[in-house]
Amino acid sequence: MKKIIAAFDGLKFSESTRDQSIQLAKQNNAHLVGVFLEDGTYQSYKTYDLLIKEGGIIGSTKKKLDKKDSKKRASAVSNFEASCQKANVKYAIHRDRNIAIQELLHESIYADLLIVDSFETLSHYDQKPPTLFIRDLLAEVQCPVLAVPHTFNDIKKLVLLYDGEPSSVHAIKMLSYTLPSLKQSPVEILSVKSINQTLGLPDNKLMKEFMCRHFPKATYKILKGILPEIEIVDYLKKEKNSTLVVLGAYRRSRVSRWFRESMADVLMKDLRLPLFIAHNK
Questions:
Q1: Is residue 250 scored above 60 in pLDDT?
Q2: Which of 115, 130, 176, 269 could form a disulfide with 21 if both were Cys (CB 3.0 to 4.6 A apart)?
Q3: pTM, whole model, 2 decimals?
Q4: Please, where are the H alpha helices in 88-227?
Q5: In a shared domain, residues 105 and 169
Q6: What is the domain range of residue 106?
């Protein structure tokens, strides 16, 4: 039995993470762990909400707001627990109270898959994806990640990004091993070749031999273009929200990513599709 962990901010509970994780856990007979990140340095209110005109802090106000946050977090846990019970999914709950990113990275060591909202920030502020929290998570995570949009949709098609690099093949392997139930969905292999290259698939014989064992009914699509990021985004914009995109990512160093975005960053920024992201270090 595989172990799936679903990450939650109880103050901004993600229903799409809840619904996607429960569905996939049930379909794949997996044990689901709800990881509630209750970082003590993060509350729903800001410090200046407590300040009075003289510059002091109203202690009673802080106690009331802390109590309100505590109730909201408890309500999120109850919501997840009730949903798991209703779906008859095997589950557990972890309420991690230390630094959120460190807790989640540690949890990922002992998980087969991590599911998280692609808009997750674990802060007061809304950010456009990829958020700082998600970028830090993807850079160091120890298991594949399924980043889901705000709105839940059943996964009905798979698009596997393939460029001939080991990381793209590794991501396809991880999907096959981790979520075998999705093998029943239509599968498309998507590659991009430059204008002056032939349309042949990289490592054509080896790749198709491999795919025959994992996704035997897969179809192949090769695009022509100068920048793969542009061609892939334009192509995927035509896909329905029920399409899962699979890719390898974040193999470059942190410094390198300052100058060039990962494909995962580009897709989260420009699309609202679920992304299965895995990288081999």
A1: no
A2: 115
A3: 0.92
A4: 100-109, 132-140, 166-178, 204-214
A5: no
A6: 3-148
